[in-house]
Write a structure and sequence with these properties.
about 45% helix; alpha/beta
Length: about 170
């Protein structure tokens, strides 16, 4: 079954300042604009592709900055029904996985992957779950006749059906 997917490349939102550090304010604004565009188009599945980013000697983002980026998605209205896969080539500082972890702590469906196909499979599983999820209200139905049979079977002595083992 087809589904819409937005691929967000890191080079589209990560902005490096003149000193070689990430310009957090501009990166956050750009990411918010892209996330907002997804929401406006009704796209509930996105893949954040970080594979093209060079791997620095030190972590690019501190945990607080990752939490701030996670907050960006909340600010534009992302919720539990949206799915985000974070795709990385290598994650020696655990930044992608920390981003996903913080997101899950906040109740969102975010996972980090080092394999493109695995990310797509996970995103498509989410779409399949969405299609198979029952709609409407759950209604409890009691089957009194069956309950009576079960109660009757439970009250019958079991000695007839089991041989007795006595005095060996």
């Amino acid at each position: 079954m087809p589904f819409d997917l937005q691929i967000i490349r890191a080079t589209e939102f990560v902005r490096i300042g003149p000193q070689g550090r990430v310009d957090m304010k501009t990166s956050k604004e750009t990411l918010a604009a892209m996330a907002h565009a997804c929401r406006m188009r009704g796209v509930d599945r996105a893949l954040l592709d970080l594979r093209s980013l060079p791997i620095p000697a030190k972590p690019r983002f501190k945990a607080a900055e990752l939490a701030e980026l996670v907050g960006t998605f909340r600010e534009v209205g992302f919720g539990p029904h949206q799915w985000l896969a974070v795709l990385y080539q290598k994650d020696p500082h655990h930044s992608a996985r920390t981003f996903a972890f913080i997101s899950r702590l906040r109740g969102w469906r975010v996972r980090a992957f080092d394999n493109f196909e695995s990310a797509l499979v996970w995103l498509s599983e989410g779409e399949a779950e969405k299609r198979t999820r029952p709609r409407g209200q759950r209604i409890h139905i009691e089957f009194k006749e069956r309950q009576q049979e079960i109660a009757q079977a439970a009250s019958e002595p079991t000695s007839k059906s089991r041989p007795s083992i006595r005095g060996r």
